[in-house]
Amino acid sequence: MSEASDTPDVLVIGAGVAGLACARDLLAAGLRVRVLEASDDVGGRMRSDRVEGFVIDRGFQVFNTSYPQVRRRLDLRALRLRPFTPGVTVHTADGPLRFRDPTRRPRAVTELLPGRLAGPRDLLALGLLSSRDLLAPVGRLKRAEDRTTRTALAAAGFSDAFVERFFRPFLSGVFLEDRLETSGRFFHLVWRSMLRGTLCLPATGIGAVPRALADALPADTVRLETPVRRLTDEGVVTAGDREAPARAVVVATGAAPAAALLPGLRVPPYREVTTYYHVTDRPPLREPTLLVDERRRFLNTCVLSEVASRLAPAGHSLIATSVLGADDDGREPAVRRALGEAYGTDAGGWDLLTVRTVPEALPAMPPPQPLSRTTRVSPGRYVCGDHRATGSVQGALASGARAAREVLHDLRGPRG
Length: 416
Fold this sequence. Notes:
alpha/beta; 4-stranded antiparallel beta sheet; 31% helix
């Protein structure tokens, strides 16, 4: 942005994926935009740090290629995506039980034979659920009556035993809650996206996603280490009491900072998650597979270096394991013991590299759950982020896109 036009039309507060998407759409429409980010880099919760030569995401994350906003905005090939095994392994008292998508790996159909993971009733229900969610118009899923995921699974014909053995441990890591009280409508959309897309990670960590969005913006659009103290009638006041005027302000931060900047804003409660990153010389599992626990002693675990080798130095394996809540005293040793059982190895010699706790990891989404909310707060003031939509990359990007549309409508007026 040149000195001659250093007063933007729109200020976007926060350089997470919602704010970056909003800025891109506004710039494409010809408005002058500046993004103010309090931290030293873009990404918000989707950041990657380097710790002793390892690439550490801020909490375990996966990237789904089926999201429409992702396909619209990102060059997936440039991200050098590395896929997870299409499926999940459930650690049970009877040993590991594999669930693989037979539409991608036809030989995996034998793993779903009755008597292994599921019985005939549950296999039939699984086939009907998957075919409906995969093939039905997405609008039909969005308009369906909302209820909890547990109720939706019961209505789909699944037995309580299969729900407890497979869906509950698996979805606990997706929704970051273990009661299956998340919106059933959202569950169907998530299941659809998993069937249609590939779960993967960029070769250099999840931080490559917001970096790609930021790199697509003109130079000097994003101002790092520029925290906003408050909003004013004319714009915002940044640290050092510097005033920054603008015709419109979009708050694209996390829920708590957004509520602080916009008094009276209603935000949902959030799920907290902690991820332990362990290091060992040899991988406890030589495949890029997500492992969950029937007893739910952890949400999920994965040998990240088997997914993307560049996340760990040569000769080392990086294991990420997530649990609900905070890193309480004494919790890591108990998690380590559970990992030893799940991987069938002695985890006592693993080194704990670092711990990442994310207080606002995912918004709670009980039914009835609106899939999108207006971003308008007051004249010239807008808010976007996953707390205004569904808790996913798709939801955050879509919320940023909606904010841009509503800003453009209000600044330019409706077009006839």
